Each structure stands twice: as C-alpha cells, then as structure tokens.
Amino acid sequence: MSTEPKLTPMMQQYFEVKRGLPRDTLLLFRLGDFFEMFFDDAVTASRICGLTLTKRQEHPMAGIPAHAVDTYVNKLLTAGKKVAICDQAEPAKAGKLVKRTLTRILSPGTTLAASQLDANRNHYLAAIALDKTGLHAAWLDLSTGEFRLASDPRIENLLPVLTALDPAELILPEGALDAWQAAPHEQTAVHALHAFCAGRLASELAAYNFETATGAKTVMDTLGVLNLQGFGLQHTHPALGPAGALVYYATENLCARPENLRQLQEYRSAGTLLLDPATLRNLEIFRSAQDGHAGSLLHAIGRTTTAAGARLLERWLAAPVLDLGEIHRRQHLVGELLAQPARLAALRELLANVRDIPRILGRLQNRLRNPRELGGVRDTLGQLPALRAELAAFAGRLADDYRPRIDELPGLHGLLSGGLNDELPADVADGNYIRPGYDAELDRLRALTTDNRTWLSDLERTEQERTGIRSLKVRFTNNFGYYIEVTKANLHLVPSDYIRRQTTVGGERYVTEALKQKEKEIFHAEESALTREQELFNALVSSVIADAAALTRTAEALAELDVLAGWAVLAREWSYCRPEIDESDTLEITEGRHPVVEQMLKATETVARGGNQAFVPNDTHLSCGDAQLALLTGPNMAGKSTYIRQVALIALLAHVGCWVPARRCRVGLVDRIFSRVGASDDLARGNSTFMVEMNETANILNHATDRSLIILDEIGRGTSTYDGLSIAWAVVEHLHRDPERGPRTLFATHYQELTQLEKHLPRLRNFSVAVKEWNDEIVFVRRVVAGAADRSYGIQVARLAGLPLSVIDRAKTILAKLESDDTSVSLPAATPVARPKKKISVAPADDSQLNLL
User: Is the pTM for the entire model greater than 0.85?
Assistant: First the structure.
C-alpha cells in the first residue's frame, strides 16, 4: 500500500490503528459525521456496499454516514468481512487533532448488535483442534453468554453437533485446514472434518493459543474463578485449548474481556441422539433444500412467541437428549398445558410481551447500551407477576418446576419504572429518557434549558417590537449556533448593536452580546443535563447487571415455557399424541404422519385429480430382534421417501420431548439416526453422485449400533444396474449379519430382486406402497401394506411427468421384450451377484437389432 511521503497527523493516526489490525480487516475511521475508508479498504467496501469511490490525495476513499453505519456493516459481515470501528473519543475542537480509539472489531461470529443478528437463531463462534487423542471443540454465543466445550476420541461423535450448531465463524490453528486436507484417503473422518470447516468462514490463530494450559488460564481469568472444578472440569481437559482460543479471539474483537461469560458447560455426545451431517441435511431438520427455513422440521414444530424460545428450540433439536427422565418431564408438561387451553392461551399472550433478555444482557454487559433495551428489561419484569399467577393456576408440575425459577425482582422493576420514560429513544446521545421527577439535579438542569428557550422566545418578540421588523427570527444551526435573521428588505432597520455573522441569499444573520452570552448558558445547561442523564442511565444499567444472574435464570425458564407451550398448541392443532419412550428396542407407530409435508399440504391446499389431497397416515413396526429391517418397494412418487423420513422424524421428535404426529407411538431409545436418501454430488471435491452415496453408506455401516435407526433410499442407483443391485443386496445382508439383533432399518428400493431376501433373512419384512390401476394409469394410494410390490410402474410415472407419447410407446415395447427374456436375478442370500453374460436383443423402431448388454 503506497502512501504520501509526508502524512498528515490524521493519516498518521489512521495508519497507527490500521497496522495493529488482523489481516483482511476493513477499518472504518470516524471523521465527523462519517466513517471513512481508505486505500484497498475503500475499493473493497465500495464493491460490496455500492458506495461511491472518491479520492483523498490521489488515494481511494469511501465514506459511510455515521447514522447509517449498521446497514453497511451488515452488508460487509454478510460478505464474510471483518470490520474494525475506530471512533472519536472526544468532541472535535478547532485546531486540535481529535483523539480516536479502536472500539471493537466486528466479525460474523462476534457481532452483538441486534440489527446484525437473527433474533430467532443462535449465533455461535466455534474453535476446533485435532490431535492424536481426538477432536476437541468449544463454542460460544457471545450474544447470550452460552459457552460449552467437548472432547471425543472419535471425530464422528462431535461432528454431528458442530454441524447442527452451524457456527457463523470458526477459529482454527494455523495450517490445520491444509493438514486435514492432506490426510491419507482412508482417514474419512478427518476429510469429513475438513469438508465441514472448508465450507465456513474460518480465522486462524497461532497454535500456542490452543494449548491446554494456556486455555485453562485464559478461561479461568475470564470466568473469575481459581479452578474449574465447580463446572465439573479438570484444568487438563483437552478442549480447554479451543475454549481459551475462543475467549482470546472474542477479547481481541471486543477490545475488552467478554463480561457476560459466567459458566462453562461440557457437552457429552454419549448423552445425546446423534444425527450426522448427511442426516441433518436429508431430513431437513433446520433447512429445506427448496424452501429454506419454511420447509424445515424446525419451522414445522416452532410455535414460539419469544426469540429466546425460538433459539432454545433450535438447541434442543441440535442435541436431542437420551435422558428418559428429562424426556418424560417435557412430555408431561406439554400435556398439562394442553389440558387447559384457555390458560394456555393466556400464558402465551403474556409470553409474547417478553423481550429478549439474554441478548439485551449480553449487549449491556459488553458496552453496547441504549435506553430502549433497558426499557425492554423493565417491560419484561412487568409481565412476571401475572405470569407467575397464571402458572400457579395450573397447580401441577408446571407450577412446581417453573414458578420458583422466575424471579420478579420487584426492586429492580420499581427502579426502572421510576427512572425511565414510557417512550424511549434508541440512542443515549438523544437524551430525554430519564423520567421527570426521578432526579432533582436533572430536573434543575432541564428547567434551566427550558427557561433559556423561553428567554429566546421572549427575545424574538422583544426584538421585533424594538426594531419594527415583524419578520425577524431567532434561529439555530449546528454550524453557527443561535442568531438573529433579518431579510434584505429590512436591513435598513437593523440597530447598531447587532453584530453581523453571515450573509445569505435572502438576508443577513446577526448576533448580540446578550445572545452570545445566553448561547453559552444554553449549551452549558444542555450539556450538563445530558451528562447528568447519562450518569443516571449508567447507574440503572449497573443495577440491571447486578441482577444479571437472576434475570438469566428467569429468561431460561421463560424460554422453556415458550417452547413447551408452543408444542401444546402444535399438538392441539394437528392432533399429535404423547409417545411412549423407553429402553426397549421397539419402534411402533400407528397412523404416523410426516410433520412437515402434512402442514405444507394443508397450507397450499393441494388439489389432485379434482379433490383435496389429505395426508395419508401409515403404521410402522420395527424391533431390533424381530422385525428389524423393513424392505419397502413401490413406484416413484408413491411416497416411499416421505414414509421412511417421517418415521425418522417421529423418532427424533420423541427424543426432544415433543408430542408426535400419530395416533399412537412407542419408541425405544435411539443412539443415532442415519440416513442415505436423495442424489447429490460434490464436484468441488472430486466426488460424483455415486461416490457421495457410497461415502454416506460406509459411514452408516461402520458406525451403526443395534440402538441406531437407519433409513436408506435407493442404495446403488448411481451406478450400473447389476453393480447397484449387488451393493444393495450386500448392504441388506450386512445390516442383518448379527444372528439375534441389528439396527432398526427402513430400506426403500426399486430392486425387486431384493424382496427374495425375506425367505433367507428372518428379521426382514417386505412392505410396499399400494397403487391402483385404471385404464393403464395409476392412482397413488399412499398406503404402506405388507408384501412386495409386483411392478415398478416406471412408464406410468414417466407419462405423468409429461414424456412424449412416442417415448412412452417405445418404452412399453422395450419393457415387454425385456420381461419376455426374463432377465431377473434370483440368488440365495449371501451369494455374490454374477453379471449375466448373455445379450438381450430388443427390436428397435426401425426393425434393426439393438443389443443391450
């Protein structure tokens, strides 16, 4: 970056700040009412934000109005940039260089402003390290203070939760990404970790920041403790290295230690139902490939009325618990709420008026403060007496669990109500947020300001009478202060004691000695009043922070209530049932439904063949030692994929404590849900559709236990028919290999040959999706029935898709020839599939010979 040989004092100040910033950080430098960017920063920001490039001493320059800085910062953060804010630390004075200081560095994972966050989503910054003992990780939501760490010898046990958390930014040791990419091909878990990290914004820190001893000291200093035993941790926990790196990075970006970190919790994968990245994607837990959030399970079961409740629901889905006591507690509380619909509605109405206390506290504790958010604390506290009274009316476990956790804090509520105006500005600098009568000194200073303004009004009237100039006005501008304005037509009437200050198009501006003196008094009174008001505001903030622990406990209880109350509404709306969940190996569902598809059908009022298309429920019975593997056949579009997905989603909902879309349901605990559905490729990493399919299948076969639930859709379709059939056949046998029990599995396929395995594998059951035929057309019944499908109906489905009739007719001719040649494969279990050597001859349309190998 080139510079002028001699820099101005202001530019020297700029470069002093710029040199201390991390690489690739854009610097916003405050100059009066604008934040300016120079050199390459200006060029980059102008491209992202659509700013006009200007020049300063022949160097690029771009400016952002200070009042609109949040809008432009949001664009830069969305583009993956880091933004440093250098603000003025004192008012500007003529002839003096303004003191400026770096106030914070904003990055996608450390931003706190409400305008830069999705209120309904968690916002994690995560740090990851890998060594010979395993994968070590820590994650932090700086906006709420949630802070966790985890360590596991197996990468595949931690990667599911990290994927579900979907961190906004990663912190990695220098060179880690390159090292993981270069790992031997057989280290598939390391390559999966690399794929996870490479797809996200990542910042690197020197490796010593990830050392356990360094991290332990950093974490203890930040939490203000002498040891970590109170959190159930030893100072040698290997994930303390990443935890320390997180705290170091956050401290550097905040330009101060994070003040809202008060506890550190350990995540244990053994206590949660794990869903690997492929399963999270295939089941569309958090996002749908086509409809984004709107087509996800999270959206379908979300009935929360508060931002904190929405984020808690996301966390519960990211780490479903295996604690039967906690699952049953949530289910019971949903039942209590469901049993009293009128009180449930009243409770939700009160919850809807609760503000986002965790994030308000996070900003207050980290020096981002505005009167309106302090009012949010006041207004929330005002709802708590009625909330506790409403809970008491339930008179069951709901009241016992939550009333003691909700602290009304009447003293703090009284202080805030007495100190804050009803209507509050968003900026402390705007003033007028402390209630009149709260502080005598502030009232006195405000009275001076009011009296002075009355004096100005009187001055205008007096001067009009003294000079005879009826159009004379006393006005104010930021540049010139107070002045007397006289039009050109009346200049001959101006008295001799007027001092001319400025000539305008329409007249002249004057001052008098009395006006100059009064201006000083007004400015002093207004400045003194604003200073006093800010002192009182800071005292109120300190009172809120002093009660932060009680406020946090209360906010956590309210968030849980919000999720559970939303589930009660969901259960009533869609006739959900309370599932039995136990330690058995059973999965029994009576009249189960897909929670997302059912709602989307209702919302869009899909019309098929002249009538409303309602969702068709289906039954499921699986058990590890009896009906372990359901082999599902049937035509495309019949609903096989929807059915197997709905079974997995119902099992998942049962583990988070939600009621489920079924008439009756019993679920034995599941340790992992695996899925291999859909077709996708990964060309950027050199993986074809079939390779992705095989990678995901290998992950399932290598890590499934007899407690797992597996759904497989069309295994082997990405390659030649016989190769695919051979692989699918072998996968089925592998899942059934244990003589007594195996993972509960739903296997959807078009390979009719696999249905023969029911004769050889005692725990395999054939099922199919029924269809009806009418005049060579098919009607999808959507009903799963016992027994194998007799045909695939591919040509009929092709007709529905709109293929030309000539193609349909030709396909029928070829199909008839193939079926007459009887090329089906009939093999006993565990016998390798041999590729047929004979050629199948089919007469093409022009009667010449077409050889199909």
Answer: yes
